[in-house]
């Protein structure tokens, strides 16, 4: 009595086990096995994919396609490395805590009309109501 391949059976109820494994097979059937939630690709599957690609594209285009795939993988790896370096640089530059701005203690003389030096308030250098000096003088 064959129940079919194991990969067609439903996973048992419940969350995945440690490492993303799923129990398969009917409870009490003696066929319970642990299966990874991520599919495994072995050498046989890779050989089948390459054989199908050879049949579809032909032997003349296969080297060209392999070169293009290699270039694409190289480019993706380069982009990944650049992104990782930028992310590490961004995280390293980010301040860990916001330090309060330094404040100057108030002067003890009590006041004055002139603003303190370095407060960001600039005094006008000349009165805007005065006419400009003559150009030819």
Describe the structure.
It is a single chain. By secondary structure, this protein is mainly alpha-helical. The chain has a domain at 60-93. Helices cover 34% and strands 6% of the residues. It has 2 helices and 2 strands; from the N terminus they run ββαα. It has helices spanning 43-57, 62-93; strands spanning 21-24, 33-36. A two-stranded antiparallel sheet has the order 1-2. It is elongated and about 95 Å long. The model has no long low-confidence stretch (mean pLDDT 74).
Fraction of residues in H or I helices: 25-40%
Strand content: 5-15%
The succession of helices and strands, N to C, reads: EEHH
Strand order of the largest sheet: 1-2
Task: Compile the SSE list and pairings.
Blueprint: E1 21-24, E2 33-36, H1 43-57, H2 62-93
Antiparallel strand pairs: 1-2
Task: Name its key features.
mainly alpha, two-stranded antiparallel sheet, 2 helices, 34% helix, 6% strand
Give a concise summary:
The protein is mainly α and 137 residues long. The chain contains 2 helices and 2 strands.
């Amino acid at each position: 009595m064959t129940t079919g391949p194991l990969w067609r059976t439903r996973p048992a109820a419940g969350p995945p086990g440690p490492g993303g494994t799923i129990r398969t097979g009917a409870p009490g059937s003696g066929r319970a096995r642990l299966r990874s939630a991520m599919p495994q690709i072995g050498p046989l599957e890779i050989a089948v994919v390459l054989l199908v690609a050879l049949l579809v594209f032909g032997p003349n285009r296969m080297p060209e396609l392999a070169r293009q795939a290699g270039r694409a993988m190289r480019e993706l790896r380069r982009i990944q490395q650049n992104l990782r370096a930028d992310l590490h640089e961004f995280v390293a530059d980010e301040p860990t805590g916001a330090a309060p701005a330094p404040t100057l203690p108030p002067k003890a003389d009590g006041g004055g009309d002139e603003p303190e030096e370095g407060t960001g308030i600039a005094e006008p250098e000349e009165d805007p109501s005065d006419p400009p000096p003559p150009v030819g003088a």
